[in-house]
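Regression test case RT-17, inverse folding.

Input:
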């Protein structure tokens, strides 16, 4: 239910991260001030042809950029910081606060994008307090997650304290010894937490999420049993996992080669900051791996999600220049597929097996644990903070609903919580929480250039090309209303019940019939020198007639590219507009001028 807006309310506006996994972005707004919490990206689905990056629609932020006082970052995962360089191309953010590792990774991204001068990066440590604008005071509280240097934040606002958990699980034996600061959470709970915004990713899973250290024995066993080369893939940003596998490589007397740019970057920054501890002698350059005996080589690679251009995917396809799968290789998938990536991961595993690799994967192998808390972790968070109001966050709809049910079981009244979508404007007052409005939300797509947005119209055309192909027809019409020569017909990716010659004859018959029947409607002649033809309307008529014929011949809906050449005022031939339309009933058009 939408209620009347309150001038004294804190607005909480998610632009990404709800009803999905990825592109986490949240706005906190009070009066004329805005702060942003995280700004992530997501990766494309199979139907997003040619798309490399998916960003949230930040139209609302751009329209209100004069209100932005700064950004707070919880940790360095791509779905939380990956969108920042793209947003900075269109608007300035005065300052960004975040953990040391996240800021190191972010600065590298900003340099690559050439936008490092459009903001100021400031690092924070556990229990640091920062102030943004007049209304927001933020304390950073150490938490535990699959990435090192991760934080929960307590935001003091005019309506009360809002705690945003960020991504979290409660790991009592973290790899780096940096334990969750449960004491500080309890202190806030004792003083009074007005609203808790909490990670919902594993809300359907009973129990506690196991400690990151629990993967050590299983990975140790796999390495001890491997006779040949060992390749391991995991999330490049899983710093704790990387520390474990590097320790195991040393234990088993293996030298480590790193494949994949993101893996190289994360390990370099994590070593510089002390989050990964190992000797330089453990590593060998990739170009020297052929000189290392198989039983002494450990290859750490990207590609755990089956990404098309990742190192492991190219290895599985036999397209990598330096690494080829051999009989006896062991490949370990120390990660579970995120929603939408399962098919790509399974295809990669199949290809590796067909090349002779022993592939170790699956939840039953004990080689991966989640970085997100399950139901008991979520209950402990609720018990410590004791919030008056509650917003389940970060997850698909069923996850948000289940988390809200868990909160009800922990004593939060149903009327004191909202299950929301991206773009919803939640207004939080001293005594109430409700959805008051909705702002522009959705997605923006970037192609491989990462500079130009892929418009929805272009994406639909790409989808149609991939599914049904394209028909191109080029013809010339003279001032006498007759075809000049034979029309040219080209088919790409089109399945037809008639052959090309027969189809061309059908096109000619349709065009000749239409010109004979309708020419007089589009020509105005007062003698040969004053002949005027409405070529644009004539082209539309011819194109629609050809579309009707093609619709009868094809089961699918291929795109139709229609090019008509006509005489100019002096009787010389010139080209009219190119028309691009689907053959089917769902009509779209894109027009591009062709030089005469």
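Golden output:
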């Amino acid at each position: 239910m939408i209620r009347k807006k309150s001038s004294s309310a804190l607005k909480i506006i998610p632009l990404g991260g709800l009803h999905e996994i990825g592109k986490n972005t949240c706005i906190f707004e009070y009066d004329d001030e805005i702060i942003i919490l995280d700004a992530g990206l997501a990766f494309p689905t199979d139907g997003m042809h040619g798309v490399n990056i998916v960003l949230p629609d930040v139209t609302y932020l751009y329209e209100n950029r004069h209100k932005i006082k700064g950004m707070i970052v919880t940790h360095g995962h791509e779905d939380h910081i990956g969108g920042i360089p793209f947003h900075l191309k269109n608007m300035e953010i005065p300052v960004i606060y975040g953990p040391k590792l996240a800021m190191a990774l972010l600065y590298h991204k900003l340099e690559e994008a050439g936008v490092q001068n459009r903001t100021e990066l400031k690092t924070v440590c556990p229990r640091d307090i920062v102030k943004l604008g007049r209304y927001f005071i933020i304390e950073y509280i150490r938490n535990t997650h699959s990435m090192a240097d991760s934080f929960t934040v307590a935001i003091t606002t005019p309506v009360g304290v809002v705690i945003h958990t960020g991504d979290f699980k409660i790991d009592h034996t973290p790899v780096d010894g940096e334990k969750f600061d449960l004491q500080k959470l309890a202190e806030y709970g004792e003083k009074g937490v007005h609203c808790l915004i909490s990670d919902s990713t594993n809300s359907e899973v009973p129990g506690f999420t196991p400690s990151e250290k629990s993967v050590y024995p299983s990975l140790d066993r796999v390495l001890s049993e491997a006779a040949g080369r060992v390749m391991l893939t995991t999330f490049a940003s899983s710093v704790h996992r990387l520390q474990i596998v590097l320790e195991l490589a040393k234990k088993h007397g293996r030298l480590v080669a790193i494949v994949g740019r993101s893996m190289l970057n994360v390990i370099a920054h994590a070593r510089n900051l002390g989050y990964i501890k190992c000797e330089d002698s453990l590593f060998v350059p990739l170009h020297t791996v052929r000189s290392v005996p198989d039983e002494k080589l450990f290859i750490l690679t990207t590609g755990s999600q089956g990404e098309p251009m990742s190192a492991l995917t190219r290895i599985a396809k036999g397209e990598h220049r330096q690494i080829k799968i051999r009989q006896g290789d062991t490949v370990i998938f120390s990660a579970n597929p995120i929603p939408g990536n399962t098919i790509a991961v399974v295809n990669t595993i199949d290809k590796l097996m067909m090349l002779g690799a022993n592939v170790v994967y699956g939840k039953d192998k004990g080689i991966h644990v989640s970085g997100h808390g399950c139901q008991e972790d979520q209950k402990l968070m609720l018990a410590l903070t004791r919030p008056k109001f509650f917003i389940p966050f970060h997850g698909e709809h069923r996850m948000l609903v289940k988390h809200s049910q868990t909160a009800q079981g922990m004593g939060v009244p149903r009327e004191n919580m909202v299950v929301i979508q991206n773009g919803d404007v939640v207004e939080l007052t001293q005594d109430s929480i409700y959805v008051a409005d909705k702002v522009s939300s959705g997605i923006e797509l970037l192609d491989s250039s990462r500079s130009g947005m892929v418009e929805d119209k272009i994406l639909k055309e790409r989808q149609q090309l991939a599914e049904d192909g394209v028909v191109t027809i080029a013809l010339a019409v003279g001032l006498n209303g007759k075809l000049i020569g034979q029309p040219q017909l080209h088919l790409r990716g089109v399945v037809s019940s008639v052959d090309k010659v027969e189809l061309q004859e059908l096109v000619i018959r349709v065009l000749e019939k239409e010109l004979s029947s309708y020419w007089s409607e589009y020509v105005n002649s007062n003698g040969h020198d004053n002949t005027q033809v409405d070529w644009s309307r004539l082209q539309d008529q011819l194109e629609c007639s050809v579309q009707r014929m093609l619709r009868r011949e094809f089961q699918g809906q291929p795109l139709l590219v229609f090019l008509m050449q006509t005489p100019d005022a002096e009787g010389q031939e010139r080209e009219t507009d190119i028309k691009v339309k689907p053959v089917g009933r769902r009509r779209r058009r894109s027009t591009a001028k062709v030089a005469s």
